Amino acid sequence: MSITPDWIALDWGSSNLRAWAMKDGRAEANVQSADGAGGLIRDGFEPALAELLGVWNVTARTPIIACGMVGSRQGWVEAPYHPVPCSPLAQGTTPAPSEKFNLQIIAGLRQTTPSDVMRGEETQIAGFLALNPEWDGVICLPGTHTKWVQVSAGEVVSFQTYMSGELFALLAGQSVLRHSVTADNWDQPTFDFTVEEALSKPEKLAARLFAIRADDLLDGTSPAIGRARLSGLLIGAELAAARPYWLGTNIAIIGAEGAATPYARALQTQGAPATIADAERMTLAGLTAAYRTWRDAR
Amino acid sequence: MSITPDWIALDWGSSNLRAWAMKDGRAEANVQSADGAGGLIRDGFEPALAELLGVWNVTARTPIIACGMVGSRQGWVEAPYHPVPCSPLAQGTTPAPSEKFNLQIIAGLRQTTPSDVMRGEETQIAGFLALNPEWDGVICLPGTHTKWVQVSAGEVVSFQTYMSGELFALLAGQSVLRHSVTADNWDQPTFDFTVEEALSKPEKLAARLFAIRADDLLDGTSPAIGRARLSGLLIGAELAAARPYWLGTNIAIIGAEGAATPYARALQTQGAPATIADAERMTLAGLTAAYRTWRDAR
């Protein structure tokens, strides 16, 4: 028996597409594909969605609420950024031009000084605030482009993006360091020590990267140590730059376990404990909040 | 009429192979190919060299003096690193196992604390010191892996490697910033300002990279500005870490014009003027010094 959803929650990022069939306020099923927005031309979005949702009974009237890069300038249709400070879903949704689907896309957020943008994270923040309505503090969303977000009275006040995730991927996968950091495991004391070192002398960062390779060449240092050092250097440098965000405040980390744990650990070594919230659950809660707002406004 | 060299100078790096036919103390001709050491297996070195030198009259007795990655562990034969402090050519040369060529490979240098290695740059430093025998100070050799080298009384005292060049290539070519930094030109005031900013607040580096993309998205900032900012951030961060090297001393930069000029400019803005020495000329002078030492020792 095929599922007939009340509405569909859609997380359409750069490299992945995921849908949840929502029925009576709960996710009854979910499907995903590799048709991320980054790999699609404009005419490719509707067929990709049709293929993904083919397993369910979906009509042109079924509400579909989406977040992520599907709403970027290179996406299906641009859902313009809303300026902060504002509540994370302040802008409402933009309908996709489709005869086949009733797709509503959540807008991203932008900040003028310093310049910054987010798209997708606003939905996770909305989900977190829906589940923790009185919460004030700073939310860290680790990923390819990690966001630090100051939240107060239900609004995003300011935020800052860090490229540490992308830098790690480039350095570990393609630089001369790749020979010295490829490991399945990870030396925790090295990570802790390196974070501490990067935070206390951030001006030394540039001098420390190549030492990972040199230590391997001269002393045969293990890749598990090399990997922990590279991650520790990058996360330590990020924490040094983000210190005004996280110092002396509540901290929540929204992320998958692999991404969130090193941040939580690094913050812990600085005497700044953080709560970890599951990224998927926050996305779903945020899409649900956006769906309710959209529905109630009709 | 084909050339019969007295000896051959060879610069065999990771990605290029270049030879000069030396006759009566001067380079009479040069040839090059893309057969860098990074792309060759062990059995591939001799044929690659034979192909390159085919245009000249070379016998199995013609001395060939080589520097660069040809002497690494993955090269033709390992020419082991010599520990600093020492004169740049302290180790002498290691012969390649060949019936066809009389190839002598210059050893690299290593440093124990902090761990570091160089291979190829020692020859340029030797060339610089051959041309400037009384010179003391710091030599900067910009490139994929930039070296800062403290030189005193004809010896390499200490050195430090920075990955700024490789980071620039990865970020400008493959990261999300590639959309915002691809330009033929370059905004000089932006570079100067960014270097200054990175030097005065090095802990902010991690926060400033993504702003290059955000400024482009929100304000349409030109790629010439984006490119100058990315380079200024990375060189500024390097200068912050290398400050103990360059502060209050003689500075020479050995590099091709495109690589050396931004470093010279950045140092100038800090009131630290640097002399630029041509990389190719230094390589040739260093190979010549190594040849004479080898010849005189026989």
From TrEMBL, chains A, B:
Organism taxonomic ancestry: Bacteria, Pseudomonadati, Pseudomonadota, Alphaproteobacteria, Rhodobacterales
Domain of life, source organism: Bacteria
Organism: Sulfitobacter pacificus
Pfam families: DGOK
InterPro entries in UniProt: DGOK, DGOK_C, DGOK_N
Name listed for the protein in its UniProt record: 2-keto-3-deoxy-galactonokinase
